[in-house]
Amino acid sequence: MKDLSLRIAFLLFTTIQLVSALQFPLSAEEAYYWTWSQQLSLGFWDHPPMVAYGIALGSIFFGKTVLAVRFVGILFYSISSYALSTSSKTPLLCYLLLATLPMLGQVGMEAHPDSYFMSFGCLTLLCLNKKWWNILPLPLAGMLLSTLSGWIFWSLCLLTPFLYKERKKVLFSMMISVLLSTPFLYWTLSHEAFPMGLGAAQSPEGFLLELFNTVYLLGVVVVAPFLLPKLCSEKIIWSMCLTGFLFCISPWIPTGFLAPGFGIAGSLYLIQRFPPRLSGTLLGINLFLFFFFKAQLHFQIFPTSIQPAHRFHGGKLLADAVSAWDIENVWTASPYDAAWIRFYSEKKAHTRAQFGTESQFDLWVKTLPEKGIFVQDQSSFLQMPGYALHSPQNIASYAEGYEEGRFIETNIWKTVLFTRVEEN
């Protein structure tokens, strides 16, 4: 009966995330990751390559669709968290905690490097619990190839050899994982700019979501010293959370940067060390926050100025407007805008740091054409050195505001035609 309940929970929450994934068009970041999947590489400007590989795999089965972009990340985390939960004392409670981490309420349906990082994190903890040393290098390398925060999470595993009698096997597994990650290291070192160009800014909504996840980390650190770990696996998870807390309170690493990874470790430790009543109470809070953020995507529960789903708006509108020009050469000041145009139209939009934000597009060398379309955010100063701009048009997308009957502009662009100016 317990196994049946676990399987039902797995199917239920996987279905919820897949249905959510089909409700919204791609966000700008997701479209940007999709462009990576069209030109696979050993690494990319903002992250290691795993998210691009996952999207490429989904595209094999579902083509150029929203489901293709999001499917693999959703399914991978569902399966890996299910596998980890089977190693705990209370599998159903553990899975429900992992499936309803607060950040997953809003961003769990998106294609994001954290989805892959969290998935490989689950498998890493599973291997450590089971002492599967021969398999351990694979999920460790997967974390390193998913997101840069994976390298911090991996470094905490350096503590584990001192908790095992088989420390040589653990260290050997870790060294193999680094060797498996050398292609990305080579890619990183072969470029002048370190690949962290975009994604540095943290929105207030994103910070709030990740802050909820740190509750696991803080709770474990505050309470765990009074309940010293007994089992070796508990010591590992506890040491990870403790060291993660020290990282999070440091002034040079944002708290939310590590929250997803330690949300997993904290959940597993709570299940293994704390009474079921306490874990059950936490699950109740989890479920409330999870479905609250799901509802907030569709309805304005909080009196915010714009419906939270507004960040998914605008991409298709921009692509349709550019397509109406019937001009093939499209250049933008933002790589996000270029990615939206590429996904929602047949245009091969590009960008270049010369007149916009530096990004992965700068590594894909393209010759500037004699004429074409230029797209720029309305809030920026319109410029394209060496070209004359003419026939400007404004494009705006709207979302429903909190006040009834009110609509607010969510994205504003200016499109112009450009022609090369001959130098005297």
Describe this structure in words.
The chain has 424 residues and is of the alpha/beta class. 54% of the residues lie in helices and 9% in strands. It is built from 17 helices and five strands. It has helices spanning 2-21, 28-38, 50-62, 66-85, 91-99, 102-107, 113-130, 137-144, 149-156, 167-180, 182-189, 204-223, 232-248, 259-273, 276-298, 315-323, 335-344, and strands spanning 330-332, 350-351, 371-377, 387-400, 407-420. A five-stranded mixed β-sheet has the order 2-1-3-5-4, with helices on one face. The longest helix is centred in the last third of the chain and has 23 residues, at 276-298. It is globular. The model is unreliable at 198-202 and 216-226 (pLDDT under 50).
What's a quick, concise take on this entry?
The protein has about 425 residues and is an alpha/beta fold.
Strand and helix layout:
Blueprint: H1 2-21, H2 28-38, H3 50-62, H4 66-85, H5 91-99, H6 102-107, H7 113-130, H8 137-144, H9 149-156, H10 167-180, H11 182-189, H12 204-223, H13 232-248, H14 259-273, H15 276-298, H16 315-323, E1 330-332, H17 335-344, E2 350-351, E3 371-377, E4 387-400, E5 407-420
Parallel strand pairs: 1-2, 1-3
Antiparallel strand pairs: 3-5, 4-5
